[in-house]
Amino acid sequence: MTTTVLHMSSSSGPGGAEAVVAGLASGLDPARYRSVVCLFRDGWLRERCDRLGLETHIVPMRGMLDLGWFRRFRALLRGRDVALIHAHEFGANTYGTLAGRLGGLPVVATVHGRSYFTDRGRRRLAYRLVSRAATMVAVSEDIKRFVVEATGAATDRVRVVHNGIAPATPLTEGERAGLRAELGIQPEDRVVTVVGSLYPVKGHRYLLEAAPRILRACPTAVFLIAGRGACERELRAQARELDIEPRVRFLGLRGDVPGLLAIADVFVLPSLSEGLSIALLEAMAAGRPVVTTRVGGNPELVVDGETGVLVPPADVERLASALVGVLSDAATARRLGENGLRRVRSRFSIDGMVTAYQAIYEAALARPVSPSNLLCGHERNRHDRVHRVTAEGRER
Fold it and tell me: Listing from the earlier edge strand, what are the strands of the sheet with 290-293?
């Protein structure tokens, strides 16, 4: 008999956390687990789950404290015979923990980033309660340290499970040539690729600032920027002002990221903050040399000088120098790419991630769950504060 796990996310992407939800839900051992997905809103993740054949439900949330959402969610839990809830992101973690524990179900709550609650005392309180009422998981050691410091959660209450990805599917030479032609890339061009939502935290502006310096050393460099977001107009204007517009391609949201990586000479991720980047993992899994910032979980993925190059965030000169170094040295680029590929295969596979979460599920299911464990001590008197803030968990 299989155990039903409900995977819930308060964000529908596109993004790395959402990719993890879909990959984990579809990757569980079907002989032991059955996956159901619950989302707060429709979007990219719903489409991804549909393509994977996952049963997916949209339970919209309306207002600060939507009691109707709790009723609808509890009905879903009962109707699908859910045995365990696995929540992702702030809103799902807080609402899922509250609903699950009140219903006597074990909850696993995964934290993917650090930008959702740092400036709100009530959010820190909510996560402290989550850490006591659920099995809290961080996607990197950096995120775990941050959660412990920011929320006061006990160190032993936060586990670490690194994100993992499936092996890359290689493209044929014909497919590579076709994609390069589609994007207007000439045979002599050197391709610098970045994949990520166009938001300030992803640091695209620093890559564009570095581009003129890179082009002086490597005039045939072409910059592929895949992703969509609020900064697109500003970034396009920046490219025009820097007079690099002909060498920059804004590609929008793409469904062929493996192809974009396959034609890249170097992958760059100039973020100001990261959890554990799926885009970076995908680039390494494709055997691409990577240049990224020394933030968040990036140093846990990239060994500087061995599997990629780490630079300080917002440091245009160091970023330009690192990219020029990789573009100008084919032997170094090949070595970094090969080493990165081996590292992903050995330490960041989707099989390893799934195995780790299944062990957490087994442990959580073996422990008795009581609604009385949700709050304790002086925090019981602040129960209403958690109710008021849980609806603030909208990450995008």
Answer: 248-252, 221-226, 190-195, 266-269, 290-293, 309-311
And the tokens for 35? 């996956």
Q: Give CA angle at 25 (19, 28), nearest 5°.
A: 125
Confidence at 119, pLDDT banded by 50, 70, 90: low
Question: Residue 103: how many CB atoms within 10 A of its CB?
Answer: 17
| 16-41 tens-digit pLDDT | 899 999 999 999 999 999 999 999 99
What domains lie within the chain, and their CATH numbers?
Answer: 3-164+350-392 (3.40.50.2000), 173-347 (3.40.50.2000)
Residue type, 374: L
Whole-angstrom Cα distance, residue 147 to residue 166? 28
Would you say 111 and 143 are in contact if contact means Cβ atoms under 8 Å apart? yes
Q: List all residues 6 or more positions away from 166 whose beta carbon is below 8 Å from its beta carbon.
A: 23, 285, 349, 350
Beta-carbon contacts of 325 under 8 Å, excluding residues fewer than 6 positions away, are 309, 332
Across the chain, what does the average pLDDT equal?
90
Instruction: Kindly report each contact of residues 70-73 with a partner whose C-beta sits within 8 Å and lies 24 or more positions away, as own/partner.
Output: 70/99, 73/38, 73/99
CA dihedral 371, 125, 136, 277 (to 10 degrees): 150
Phi, psi of 386 (to 5 degrees): -65, -40
DSSP conformation letters of 6-33: EEEES---SSHHHHHHHHHHHHS-TTTE
Q: Residue 162 pLDDT more than 70?
A: yes
Cβ contact 28:47 at 8 Å: no
List the beta bridge partners of residue 135: 108
